[in-house]
Amino acid sequence: MNNDLLLGAAAVAGERVRLDVLQQVVGLPPNDFLGSLDALVRAGALVVTAGEAWFADESVRRDAEARLPFTARADLHRRTAEAVDAPAEAQRHWSAAVALTPDARERARLQLKLAQAAVKAGDLTAAHVAAQAAARAARNEQDLDLLADAAVALEPIGQSAWDGDIHQWCTEALAAPGLSTETRVRLLARQAQAAVYLGRWGEAAAASSEALGQADTNDLLVEALTARQLATSGPDDVDELAAAARRMIELGTSTGRAEIELRGRLWQVDVLWYSGDLAAIGAETGRLASCAGRVNGSHGRWHVLLTQASLALARAEFEDAESLLDEALEVFRSIGHPATHGAEVAFRMLVGHHRGHSAELLGSAVWQFGTDARWDLAARLNRAFVLVDAGRLDEAAALYQRSGDPESWPSWRAGELLLHTIGARVAAAVGATADVRRFRDRLGPHRGRYVVAGAGATNFLGPVELVLGACAAALNEWDAAIADLQKAGALCRSIGAPGFAVEAACLLAEVYERSGDVPQARALAAETLPLAKTLGMAPWVQRLATPTGPLSQREREVADLVAKGLSNREIAAALVISERTAQNHVQHILTKLGFANRAQVAAWVSRG
């Protein structure tokens, strides 16, 4: 009997199976297991070596599997899925168990197991399909407990269809009477997470608060805190986020669960990014790595590497940053996460901001993020930001205009500072002064914070004062611009962010020049230039070394021709461009320099 059980289990396992897995599946005591294994080896059915067993003849394996009743075969697939540690292998066995199970409710519960295994294996399409099948079965059977299990089986990932399904399932399940506290807290927590990704911030805040208030065990507290962290991860939530981080770290250390401690430490890092404490982030990274080393799976390693890469980038250690990013992306691609491409493009955009953008980032293809319209705005704004850096203002202006009125932009609590900062920098460059004023009003209350995309995304862009200085400069408010940019430079130097110190100094030098203090501009540029060269910040080296102020090389050429009295048509002929392009260049020059007419441009050129 034991021999038949062992032979069937080995047949279901596939071509090869580890002996420890096989023993766990059959559940035999060690001596009985070894005795049956020895008998099968002696009979020539199995071969054993290096801790693994396989069939000497594949036809024998297929025959042994075929002789098993469907119920027994389904049970062995289930047991094997629970025993193996390779996600893809577990997914295969859960899928087989689903196919062999006739009972609708039991099949649905197996589909939830399949969905979770598929997520770990990086097969998100299969995961979504399995979860949807389970939810349909729950509705058909009018089994709200099953629907509740389906609602919490998967976590939101930033895809509308996926997140929308989770939100809908939670909403339906929460409407059921007589829910236990445990079920209600889990549903509220998951509903809050989905609501965040769907941009329903009020709902997310309410649901996460209710979940946190009702959580009465450590496990439920972990889920409630996780939802609350996601719902309160903006610049106004720093104190609450810090408290949640402390509670999560304490839960992790007191229970010995490294995966819980890891979450808390990631939240603590988010708090430190908002305060710009790069030294403390460096220290915390070691603790993150320690936690990740004790957690199975790739997500912990990804977070450690991304934190290290972001820290290196903030410190202007560009080569290290890109190397760490490449390593992190390799980890993320291994699990097939849909955010991989967006994370890579965003990071390379930040590197390019200081070192120069690649041709790929200047093109349009890399900014395609699939069919999820929620990311279209970010793609347009970020590409416009890149085009502004490259001096391609006409294209940047067109993208910015297609982004619509900033008042209509969807809110993203965690990314509030980053969205408004990039919007402000683009608006300032393309002359959208009304929008610049609105962005400045939104960013002003956050003085002393640093521009990041919270909730683990990082995307560090220096102190808020840096963008406020750029806004003031675009509005020709020279005293305010000088004060903010001087403050930004001091903050960057104090935290050890030399790349942003160079940027602040360059913008300040351009403000001095535009406001008429040319000697001060030249002195500051000369003082900053060696550091920019040392760091390899080629675009900023060019801006500091070339007395064009805020103008691009092409705009300087146009300004020189304006100073010579040429009309737009004559400028177009001289530079072999269209008259419309020449007109746009002249308008950008007037906007950048804060001038009202061409005579002021001519006077500015003569002073240079």
Outline of this structure?
The protein has 608 residues and is mainly alpha-helical. Helices cover 73% and strands 2% of the residues.
Description:
It comes from Kribbella sindirgiensis. One of its GO terms (molecular function) is DNA binding. This is LuxR family transcriptional regulator. There is one protein chain. The chain is mostly helical. Among the domains are: 384-545, Serine Threonine Protein Phosphatase 5, Tetratricopeptide repeat (Alpha Horseshoe), CATH 1.25.40.10; 553-607, Arc Repressor Mutant, subunit A (Orthogonal Bundle). It contains 33 helices and 3 strands. A 3-stranded antiparallel β-sheet has the order 1-3-2. Helix 1 crosses helix 3 (30-42) and helix 21 crosses helix 23. It is elongated and about 100 Å long.
Numbering strands along the chain, what is their spatial order in the largest sheet?
Answer: 1-3-2
Radius of gyration (CA) equals: 30 Å
Give the helix/strand class: mainly alpha
Helix content: over 70%
Q: What fraction of the residues are assigned to beta strands by DSSP?
A: under 5%
Name of the CATH homologous superfamily of the domain at 384-545:
Tetratricopeptide repeat domain
Q: Count the strands?
A: 3
Uncertain ranges? none
